Automatic annotation (TrEMBL):
Keywords of the record: Membrane, Transmembrane, Transmembrane helix, Transport
Similarity-based family: Belongs to the binding-protein-dependent transport system permease family.
SUPFAM superfamilies: MetI-like
Transmembrane segments: 21-45, 65-93, 148-171, 183-204
Protein name (record): ABC transporter permease
Amino acid sequence: MSFWEYLGNRHQQLLADALQHASAVLQCMVVATLIGVLIGVLTYRSEWAGNLATLTTSGILTIPSLAMIGLLIPIVGLGVAPTVIALTLYGLLPIVRNCVVGLRGVDPALVDAARGIGMSRLAQLLRVELPLAWPPILTGIRVATQMLMGIAAIAAYASGPGLGNVIFRGLASLGSANALNQVLAGTLGIIILALLFDAAYVVLGRLTIPRGIRV
């Protein structure tokens, strides 16, 4: 069976796996973004705290994905739970680092001006600092998403959702008729999803970043 015949026969299952893959990555990115920005906001004013946050999240990223999921299985079991936890942890580093860098890069004169017109500390953060730091934060989110697209395939090891199941089935049956088709279909599916997500972030950036800041 050719690759195109395989796609024609299995397109519904592949589409379902792709939707599960995209959904898992999207939900984990939302959680990682919220946690990462919160960590960045809490640590960027202190040199040691910001460095500690970056060092800790970078240390998490050095843990092999199979080892991370394997360590989580005895704690939370198989399925979605270890996938969500692992992907969320892996997505933190680019967001935390870019949030800290972006907030530290805000012109102090603008913050002083906001304080001078009577803005509270929270208002300064929400209306001045975070909007100006949004471009690097969005870049961190884009980088994290691309990483998680590939890492999410390993979730099949823990019976997690997504295109990794297609790839693992192919690898487990190498030598059979459709083994290479399965591996190729799963890999191409992940690449296509990554490109679609990145295009969506480009559109989001154009909608949320003022032209003057973007330039």
